[in-house]
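User: Predict the structure for this protein chain, please.
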Amino acid sequence: MKALVLSGGAGTRLRPITHTSAKQLVPLANKPILFYGLEAIAAAGITDVGIIVGDTHADIEAAVGDGSALGISATYIRQEAPLGLAHCVLIARDFLGDDAFVMYLGDNLILGGIGDFVEEFGRDEPNSLVLLTKVEHPEQFGVAEIGDDGTLVRLVEKPKDPPSDLALVGVYLFDRSIHEAVDAIEPSWRGELEITDAIQWLVEQGRAVRYHVLDRPWIDTGKRQDLLEANRIVLEGIDADIRGSVDSDSRVSGSVVVEEGAEIVASQVRGPAVIGTGTRVVNSYVGPYSSIGPNCEVVDAEIEHSVVLEGSKIEGVHRIDESLIGRNSEVRRVTSGPKAYRFLVGDDCEVDIL
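Assistant: Here is the predicted structure, written as structure tokens:
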């Protein structure tokens, strides 16, 4: 079995962060989102991985390289325009051949990996296995309709009137029959080849399309709040690991990772939290569910439930909550003001708080 990982999206819902970097490389607990999916694929025993890339291909290729550090062999496939998930299957035909494969959206997070689904697919040998989960706003997703006999009847992409609350998760397993389906469908009203239409074609042709309703967390990290929730979930699974320095005037409690070269000075850090390599936390409070990237400074500040990317500086601000702060940004207090702030700050920005 092979894997096809989709990493070509523009990440419009995470702008301005994604104006200057790929959305799949935004970190959770200081590791790119994309890496969690690639590691899950490797853990499922799949090593031959095609990665669909777009305008941010240079960033993705620089981060993943040949894939060996993640236990895979990476092949890059360029998608010139965002023409749909089924279009990704179409342009990857030479790479996929007649092999079965798992298709994985690179900005999705599934806690617990995909090994059991790969095993189920290999055991039962359907033409397709799709993962579903209950969501509050199904109109924002591809949605499945399940018949009274428990079979999958219909799939529809982002319907105005959803037939159920069961959304398609960004992981699909296919055998070679999906290529027939992709060849048979036409672009949707959005001008894209929809994977939901391709799977629907399989259903209508009487092919074996199975589904599995997830009983574990799944998050599409395309929006700020979802990304922060994914960061929270990942941090809940970490163990304490102090490799940097913590002075005698500081207190570190709970599951906290202080990476090598990081310094905690006269500060309190409450886990779960990650402090990146080369980062200094001085006279500050870093609260639970915070990921502070490498080479940052947090001085005379309070922050929790936030993600701060590499090279940023936070100074004199009380208090930052539920925020995503881009690379090489500065957030600082210049005069007195309200005691709580929420930010979505792009790379290389400065924020003066009045």
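The mean pLDDT is 90.
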